[in-house]
From TrEMBL:
Keyword Signal in record: yes
Keyword Ribosomal protein: no
InterPro entries: MlaA
Classification via PANTHER family: INTERMEMBRANE PHOSPHOLIPID TRANSPORT SYSTEM LIPOPROTEIN MLAA (PTHR30035:SF3), LIPOPROTEIN VACJ-RELATED (PTHR30035)
Family: Belongs to the MlaA family.
Gene source species: Paeniroseomonas aquatica
Pfam families linked: MlaA
Keyword vocabulary terms for this entry: Lipoprotein, Signal
Name of the molecule in the record: VacJ family lipoprotein
Alphabetical list of PROSITE patterns matching this protein: PROKAR_LIPOPROTEIN
Amino acid sequence: MPRPITQRPITLLALLLATGLAACAQPGREARLASNSASRIASDAAGTAPPVVVQAPTDPSDPLEASNRRVLDFNLRLDDAVLRPVAVVYRDSLGNWTRTRIRNLLANLNEPTAAANSLLQGRPQEAATTALRFVFNSTAGLGGMFDLEQFGGPPRARRDFGETLHVWGLPDGPYLMVPVLGPSNPRELTGSIADGFMNPINYLIPVGANLGRGAVEGVDTRERNIETLDEIRTGSLDVYARLRSLWQQHRDAELGRTTAGAIDVLDDPGATPR
């Protein structure tokens, strides 16, 4: 049974590295291509121009589906050529213990952003707890490599500016598939960018170190989702629709808009044979 999609990190590179897979091997899509080819042949024989076939969106929240699918095709090629191979090498080169230490350290560097968003969402007590957590894990946890929550330390509160904008009443906007970065929407994309500017740690370390940190976060997220995304690609009637559905379900759960538990990677209410 494949693992569920892991919690949304928040560097953008990680989100799409983890979900930049796609729909180039869809049976329905192949049928449409074959049909279009036949139409062109018949039109050429008759000496007329082939009709332009415009595919209607399959989801009201995704009016940009045609262009989004093309972006996902690009993400698929990039993933096959670079992202997945790098994630496999990362897993094979470093043991689980070492990868966990790296993951904890990177997560600890994002705690100031979580604290700021808790405050902006009107959760001052949670913001104070997150700040305390950052201090404890940065000192007794050796820079955050060890999460003291398992020993009774302050719990983690996963907050981001996309969620803050939701709390303030900003609507989602249309679904977007962002090159390299993956599933998003205008509010979440804006929130992810804002989170980078909100973290004071980003101003204390060199630009190169920040870029390297983002790359490692992306590789780590891609490594944790190797089996999950492989299953989505090989077991879906429509990979694009499945990714869209799973991302939307996952984000709805993070925003408290659903009472559903962990999302099953096999659950695909948005995918329909085409």
